[in-house]
Amino acid sequence: MTADYLQQVTLGAIEQQPTIQLVAADPTWPAQFAVEQRKIKQALGATALRIEHVGSTSIADLSAKPIIDILLLVPDAADEAVYVPQLTKAGYILRIREPDWHHHRMFRGTTRPLHIHVFSEGCSEAQQMLHFRDWLRHDTADRQWYRATKAELAAKEWPTMQAYADAKGPVVTAIKAHATTYFDHYNG
Fold it and tell me: Which Pfam families match (predicted)?
């Protein structure tokens, strides 16, 4: 993601992140997610079609940045009027608006470090996020590869957290391909 693009899609200042702090897996992460899941469901009701714990904190023995990643599926992520005011009132802050990339929206938490990634129901990127999570829960070799990649990259300095995420891109893409092959075969 280029710096210009990041500036275009970010609401407010881009947060500088010269170092990435990875911590050992925390057994309270699922409970932290569950608290936020209930809060989101209460705020959105039936508009929240699916709320999933994703990212490294959703994988039991994987080190991670201590930020809970949440996948939220709504009927139409482009229709902000049906979820942005409610999530804002519940204490979340809209930080990213990517209308040209799956209508992705990203909120940050105000009471704990978290990211809510909003996509439309049926979005292929959302399904890939779930496959990635489920594959890393299942496959030890790819989980170890991802762990080593994250540790190597976290030891470097980055201008933004997005730059760190982008650097993981080739490994994430390869693991997503493994996951897609597995789940396509398993479900086919």
Answer: GrpB
Per-residue pLDDT reduced to its tens digit, 102-158: 999 999 999 899 999 999 999 999 999 999 999 999 999 999 999 999 999 999 988
Enter the tokens of residue 68: 């809970």
Q: Which residue has the higher pLDDT, 161 or 87?
A: 87
Number of domains in the chain: 1
Judged by phi (left if over 0) then psi (alpha if -120 to 50, else beta), residue 116 lies in beta
Cα–Cα distance, 187 to 111 (Å, whole number) = 39
Q: How far apart are CA 158 and CA 167, in angstroms?
A: 10
Q: What is the pLDDT of residue 186?
A: 72
Is 12 a domain residue? no
Residue 28 to residues 13, 35, 80, 156, 184, Cα–Cα distance (Å): 30, 11, 31, 28, 32
Provide the angle, in degrees to the nearest 10, between the axes of the packed helices 140-154 and 124-138: 100
**Would 13 be classed as within a structural domain?**
no
CATH number of 133's domain: 3.30.460.10
Half-sphere exposure of 61 (CA within 13 A, CB side): 8
Alpha-carbon distance of 144 to 171, in angstroms, equals 12
Cα–Cα distance between 147 and 61 in angstroms, integer? Answer: 10
